[in-house]
Amino acid sequence: MKLYLPLLLFLFTISTGKAQSCDELLATVKESGYGTTYTSYDSDAISKVTFYDLSIDYETYYFAVVCFKEEYSLSCSEYLYQVSSNTKLNYSMNYLNNAGKAFWKYIEPYSENLSCSPDFN
Q: What pLDDT digit, counting tens, does each position of 51-71 carry?
């Protein structure tokens, strides 16, 4: 199931009473509840990935917040992806071997669902 940004923003607008940008959507997802975080200590690019399940009007939506390491810094930049229900399981089973490969295989294919992710082209 692909849900694009306009529909998701519409649902958030209905539930919160206001339109939301990617930054606001990211904040809403992060504030929605408990997330499961997978930290990548050995990755050059990915610091951590946190998965959230969010229920809106009796539907469950799945999100990954990917924190990409910033060069010459201890901080990271967060980006939001709307993913499928099995993405968390697939990523969790593969990220310790290579977080970058797991990201490209299981999370990045969903980058156009929200258009809230970096453009790697």
A: 999 988 889 999 999 999 988
In terms of Cβ atoms closer than 10 Å to its own Cβ (0-12, 13-18, 19+), residue 5 is: middle
Spell 62-72 as b/e; 16+ CB within 10 A means b: bbbbbbbbeee
Q: Count of alpha carbons within 13 Å of 55, Cβ hemisphere only?
A: 4
Q: Please state the separation of Cα 8 from the chain's center in Å.
A: 14
Of 120, 121, 115, whose CA–CA distance to 23 is shortest? 115
Q: What are the pLDDT digits (tens) for 72-106?
A: 878 899 999 999 999 999 999 999 999 999 999 99
Alpha helices in 1-121 (DSSP H): 5-16, 22-31, 87-94, 99-106, 111-114
- Output the pTM of the full model: 0.82
List alpha helices for 17-76, DSSP H.
22-31
